Fold:
Amino acid sequence: MESRFYYVQDRLESIRRIHHRSDIHELLSSLTLEGLHTPCVFQLENQLTSEALLWADTHSPFFLKPNDSNNHNLYLVRDASSLAALYPRLREEAEQTETRRISEVSTADTDLLHCNGTYLMEQYIPHSVVFKLYAYRGAILHIDFRAPLCLPKAFCHENRRDECTREAMHRKINSQTCPEIQTSITYTPTLAEQHLAQKIAQLIYISSGLSILGIDALRTPFGFHIIDLNYFSGPKKIDWLDLKRLLLSDLPNY
Structure:
């Protein structure tokens, strides 16, 4: 029975569309639906330009994410001066590590440098809860709820002029292992939230053509800010029997 899952495939070109975070943002920003939003972003390629620093200065705090969506290491950066201090160190460490074989230094910050050193700077969006939507062909099968990722105290406006350490200037986060954002919480969504989430899942499916999709949505007073898409994503510790039945029902009869 399991071998028949070979026949359930999405188009490779559709899957490739969400390999890079910049492509994910481009897809999401093209969607039009009341209550659906995307954070402001800036693509940083190979060098720190004056335009990048200006963006960082006007959109702080922000995340610095590798453009490779398979890399889950990212930085929460306080402001432009923090970026200016952090970025050269990352570049220097990357060059040094390349000569020593990067596989031998798995804990180095240089694992952030993927996709030829391309990053996506993404503005931090204040939010009350994170909706983890798990959908099959636009139909939500399960929703997991996570606590909001709060800013460090040093990031607060009244503390920005204070002298700070490197730790206060930025925070490194692994989105797959950080307990703060991986722990589920109890939350009861309103009917309006459920309806909007379903509309978003359906619209993303129609636009992306991807059958099994995880959608990360930040709940804000304005609706949902969609920050990430994950292909063939499933909720942790959840029985996927119902999904398997759905997949099998779509298979041709041989």
